[in-house]
Amino acid sequence: MTTIPIPGMLDPHVHLRGMQWAHKGTFASETEAALAGGYWAVLDMPNTPPSTIDRPALERKLAEIAAQALCDWGLYYGAAKADNWGTYPAIIDDVCGLKIYNNATTGNLLIDDQAIRAQHYQHWPRSKVIAVHAEDETMRDILALVRQYRQRTHFCHICTTYEIGLLRAAKAEGLPVTLGVTPHHLFLTEDDIKRLGTHGLMKPPLKTRADQAALWQALADGLVDVVESDHAPHTLAEKSSEKTYYGVPGLQTTLPLLLTAVHEKRLPLERAVALVSANPRRIFGLECPPDTYTLVDLGESFVIDSAWLRGGCGWSPFEGMRVRGRVRSVSIRGTQVFDGESVRVRPGFGQNLFGKR
Ligand code: DOR
Ligand code: ZN
């Protein structure tokens, strides 16, 4: 058996739901999916209503996730269309970073006014990261702010040749930028939408084969800093309805997909591991706690099916794919929290990695 330990896996981009969207998933159900996916910790985005853009909404989310989380966690604060930068000093100690939505997506946090974006860049405390959703040309506007304010900025779900080119240049220029790519942009393309139907719809959307090849090249070059799942569950009923719900789950499938690429010699093992552990930890200034690691069996292959999936939504765009890498055990701070079959801790075991309280 070829079982290896991976220290402190961190997914810096998830939408765990809960609160007004608890029907899609709860902090308990989605952190169970995180453990089954091998993760020590997850960083949750602010777009689930009520959006995390003021102190009361943050308090509500902190209380709910603290009571339910099975793995360690952090919360992003959201930049609001109207002024909420005045609240930054009061919330900074409780969050992992700021998220700015610069293109339309699930939720109502879109900021398309460059002057408002600049206010957020000006006021955000420099101690923590700004993560941005910025597609295509919008990236140029954000890079201008990074250049002006020198704020550390993580570009989420980069997925085109053009975007990769902009970030390659930004890094060469010495700007304080990092980037993440998602498993769905690495393993699926727009050609899969015919087969997947609405299960292939997310923001940013699936791209061309040429774009996909650029992402793999950027992984090989070491340009990409993290692989982030962008775990965004919607129920099967929602996905089958008239309305379009953008987003796909991914917490449980990210590691086996990457290890499949390792097996196929498309990616060195050390790099795959770094993309889901040391690199995201470094960006967010997190140390791996003692005795915190995942044991994964590289030898075992299995087919992703709905019966295997944890979490609230019960489907995956990767169903039917044969993957390699079975999570055997997850330990956090010396406690075995997942034994390959069952969760072994109570809701509330997980800690806020950024909270002072
Ligand atoms: O497809 C997406 N779904 N993209 C996002 O940016 C948000 C996410 C969600 O929350 O559903
Ligand atoms: Zn997202």
Radius of gyration: 19 Å
CATH hierarchy, class? Alpha Beta
Share of helical residues: 25-40%
Q: Give the total of beta strands.
A: 12
Main beta sheet: strand number and arrangement? 8 strands, parallel
Strand content: 15-25%
Our count of domains comes out at 1
What is the assembly state of the chains in this entry?
Answer: single chain
CATH topology heading: TIM Barrel
Strand and helix layout:
Blueprint: E1 3-7, E2 10-14, H1 27-36, E3 41-44, H2 55-68, E4 72-78, H3 88-91, E5 97-101, H4 114-123, E6 129-133, H5 138-149, E7 153-155, H6 161-173, E8 177-181, H7 183-187, H8 193-196, H9 209-221, E9 226-227, H10 236-239, H11 254-263, H12 269-276, H13 278-283, E10 293-303, E11 322-332, E12 335-338
Parallel strand pairs: 2-3, 3-4, 4-5, 5-6, 6-7, 7-8, 8-9
Antiparallel strand pairs: 1-10, 10-11, 11-12
Helix pairs in contact: 4-5
Bound molecules: (4S)-2,6-dioxohexahydropyrimidine-4-carboxylic acid and zinc ion.
Zinc ion binds next to loops.
Walk me through what this model shows.
This protein has 357 residues and is of the alpha/beta class. It contains 13 helices and twelve strands. It has helices at residues 27-36, 55-68, 88-91, 114-123, 138-149, 161-173, 183-187, 193-196, 209-221, 236-239, 254-263, 269-276, 278-283; strands at 3-7, 10-14, 41-44, 72-78, 97-101, 129-133, 153-155, 177-181, 226-227, 293-303, 322-332, 335-338. The strands form two sheets. The chain has an eight-stranded parallel beta sheet. It binds (4S)-2,6-dioxohexahydropyrimidine-4-carboxylic acid and zinc ion.
